Amino acid sequence: MSHLKLFAAVVKWHGIKILRKPDVAGRVFLHGQRYASSGTSEPFLSGSNSNYVEEMYYAWLENPQSVHKSWDLFFRNANAGQTYDPHLPDQLERKASFLQSHGLAQTPGKAEKLVEDHLAVQSLIRAYQIRGHHVAQLDPLGILDADLDSFVPSDLITTIDKLGFYGLHESDLDKVFQLPTTTFIGGNENSLSLREIIKRLENTYCQHIGLEFMFINDVEQCQWIRQKFETPGVMKFTNEEKRTLLARLVRSMRYAGVVLGNCSVTAGFEDFLARKWSSEKRFGLEGCEVMIPALKTIIDKSSEMGIEYVIMGMPHRGRLNVLANVIRKELEQIFCQFDPKLEAADEGSGDVKYHLGMYHERINRATNKKITLSLMANPSHLEAVDPVVQGKTKAEQFYRGDTAGKKVMSILLHGDAAFAGQGVVYETFHLSDLPSYTTNGTIHVVVNNQIGFTTDPRMARSSPYPTDVARVVNAPIFHVNADDPEAVMYVCSVAAEWRNTFNKDVVVDLVCYRRRGHNEMDEPMFTQPLMYKQIHKQVPVLKKYADKLIADGTVTLQEFEEEIAKYDRICEEAYTRSKDNKILHIKHWLDSPWPGFFNMDGEPKSMSCPPTGISEDLLTHIGNVASSVPVKDFKIHAGLSRILRARLEMTKNRVVDWALAEYMAFGSFLKEGIHVRLSGQDVERGTFSHRHHVLHDQEVDKRTCVPMNHLWEQQAPYTVCNSSLSEYGVLGFELGFAMASPNALVCWEAQFGDFHNTAQCIIDQFISSGQAKWGPEHSSARPERFLQMSNDDSDAFPEFSEQFEVSQLYECNWIVVNCSTPANYFHVLRRQILLPFRKPLIILTPKSLLRHPEAKSSFDEMVSGTTFQRVIPENGLAAQAPHEVKRVIFCTGKVYYDLVKERKNQDLEKQVAITRLEQISPFPFDLLKEELEKYPGADLVWCQEEHKNSGYYDYVKPRFRTIVNHTRPIWYVGREPAAAAATGNKNTHLVSLRRFLDTAFNLEAFEGKTF
Ligand SMILES: Cc1ncc(C[n+]2csc(CCOP(=O)(O)OP(=O)(O)O)c2C)c(N)n1
Ligand SMILES: [Mg+2]
């Protein structure tokens, strides 16, 4: 008897030793000998054979394949901690008496069977933990497989004959088995009968909850989940909790025509909307009404665990219900949006009601603590809001110093088809654990109604579940049958605890159905006839749950009816009040208000922008720090030392290049307490190796220094972060970050410029409101796309006033600039924050100017009194005698340098003026008018290096023509139209450059031509 004990102790002891002393593990026993357990021929664990087993164990340590498969499995399990601790005598005693009672201790054949059966039971338990969810009853309709597969895994005991898979028999069902430490089904008991083990595993893993977590690489986290779900009796609710759940369901639910006793009642938000606006689309939640109490449980539990601010993003389905019953937007505000005659009182597109956002502070009733809830506004584009929510959450954590995400968290809701289909979901998951992007865990809730518009799940995804994308970040996934409200509440509560314990993502998959068509006007029977036959028969969850609570005496029918009547009254009263609303205030629907930044009416406090120049002292100081290594004993690369020396030289000479101008703009804000964040692929060094904002010690691994954070003792922090290789996700994230506060300069840099278009959805749907589609290439950031989306009128000649420059900026939808000097780049960055309002700014960076020897500016162009120049007029010889000038060439960006060089070569400096547009949109009508009038005898040329059908020409031409009132032509010089942004052939490129430069300086080129 004691031999088995001894063996267990040996295994355990060596297990510990192995961890601590590799020399023990390194011992070699009986090299190459294969140990096989033949069963009958082997007197199992007799006194002499315990050594044999011990030796076999060492051999196994050397090479697991040197022993029989069954011993391999046994040792593996033993090493995984499923052995007995020799220091706990009572365990051994129990084991001993257990063996005695079964008459096995001294019976070798039986003892071996016992060990094998124990191993089998351990495998069985593990099989349920891994695969139990495949047979869980997740579909409320009972007709679909949530994992798209009706196959039943052969290692789950769905029928008694399957015990044979493990070498077990029906006769083993009442035998008692020791439970491994990797299960909690025993509660306080260490052993259970096989019958009870299977029953408890079935209860935990195969009822209304399906758990996917065994892929998580962290034992502690797996144990935590097993404990939460396996412990007997964990899913008990008090009567009070059940009543609250019922009341929340009442509020959520459409409950038309359901007969309760003798009384036919309708109830709830969805029902109310359906009755009042029967022909309106509202993307109702019917079939997943449980989502409302589910979200409330998550918020209650999170508030209890210290969360003060929850930021949410969600699609169309159930959005109005969430606004009303989770965020608690005033009902009349929601109802009045259904009035088509309602006028918008303030700026904003008056976006459809299921797109608007919301921000609300209130007291959480469950915890009596203050909680702020914000639902981000979203476009129709499914899942596009995900990274925006994460960025905003990160910013709120950042500004609160909540580095661990203990106060602010995000919840993302998804549809099943969109969650599986949209790539931005994957991009967003991959931000979840990156230091500068993590929000310390997000709770994802999927409204898995097993359909996407008209598409069946089998046609919508290739993965078993719509949630499989979450597995890449080791997020546990809890599937739950949405018709079991208590199971849903339990799962949500564990999800909230998980997020607030481990600060990692988690997914709740509400497996439900969609009672109606995609929207209320749609006929679902066209495409899903059988599913909808079943749905028509489906008893609503509220009725099922109410019946249950009434039957067990938790509530009375009368109480239930009163709850319904009470909510109906609330809705009716709000409906009456909503009729008085004549105006829709979009500002009531902002998800990120900026208190104090605008005046009380939400308008900018002024219409002037302070000059953007800064003192020379400041420029010098920043230049010096940018040229230094502000940390002791830090060895940088020799090449970088050269770059820093060149920076110092420039600073001494009062000159900046591109990188230094940027340094100075960023640095100057940090002094003023303005946070600066620069994110994008490889931005820390700069794709073109010009920036070097993070220095790397050449001798100490991972030791870095960010000189920008060493500018002053008291300064705002500077964040510069290389992003994941994503555009859509990261631009969305940075947009969300920028939305949190107007007092930060948040920059996203698109690598090579052109890659911004994989983020097109964010650009089109969030930043601009236009739409465009095009193909990629490194040669162009496609300025024409941005200009095409600019909203200033090409044909309307504006009225000029003193405030024209700023009011024009205020009125436009975004600003497009293309700077030709480092100083102007510096100024435009600074103007961005000094303006009394916020506008998206598109900076088209001419890549060749990043290192161009002539793209240098003097401090004189940056010191106090200087400012951003929207237009840089000709200031050479031509400007001194303008009446003699034959041609004015207008251009933007780097082609200016080519033109100047060519003009010099051709000795045409008196005859040809060259004027640069630095701000293209909004179009500087005022300055260009002056410039045109200055040269009355000159012909006017627009020159660009892009093809005629791209670049700036289509945008600038009609505006120039408006200025001259169509009396003078504006000639085009540049490349011919083309389908691609550039030729792939350098020579062809140079030939076409030569050709258009020739035209630009051929003063007869347009003679006799008409326009
Ligand atoms: C990016 C994008 N593509 C297509 C659509 C059009 N669309 C709207 S809802 C929908 C189906 C969504 O299905 P699912 O995600 O399961 O949500 P459900 O409507 O079932 O709640 C589609 C294709 C869209 N809104 N966004
Ligand atoms: Mg769906």
UniProtKB/TrEMBL annotation:
SUPFAM superfamilies: Thiamin diphosphate-binding fold (THDP-binding). GO terms for cellular component: mitochondrial matrix; oxoglutarate dehydrogenase complex. Pfam families: 2-oxogl_dehyd_N, E1_dh, OxoGdeHyase_C, Transket_pyr. It comes from Callipepla squamata (Scaled quail). It is found in: Mitochondrion matrix. The keyword Mitochondrion applies. Its cofactor is Mg(2+); thiamine diphosphate. Belongs to the alpha-ketoglutarate dehydrogenase family. One of its GO terms (molecular function) is oxoglutarate dehydrogenase (succinyl-transferring) activity. It is an enzyme of class 1 (oxidoreductase). NCBIfam families: 2oxo_dh_E1 (TIGR00239), PRK09404.1 (NF006914), PRK12270.1 (NF008907). Residues 656-852 form the Transketolase-like pyrimidine-binding domain. 2-oxoglutarate dehydrogenase (E1-like) component of the 2-oxoglutarate dehydrogenase multienzyme complex (OGDHC) which mediates the decarboxylation of alpha-ketoglutarate in the tricarboxylic acid cycle. The OGDHC complex catalyzes the overall conversion of 2-oxoglutarate to succinyl-CoA and CO(2) while reducing NAD(+) to NADH. The OGDHC complex is mainly active in the mitochondrion. Involved in the inhibition of cell proliferation and in apoptosis. Its EC number is 1.2.4.2. It catalyses: N(6)-[(R)-lipoyl]-L-lysyl-[protein] + 2-oxoglutarate + H(+) = N(6)-[(R)-S(8)-succinyldihydrolipoyl]-L-lysyl-[protein] + CO2. One of its GO terms (biological process) is glycolytic process. Its main location: mitochondrion. This is 2-oxoglutarate dehydrogenase-like, mitochondrial. The keyword Glycosyltransferase does not apply.
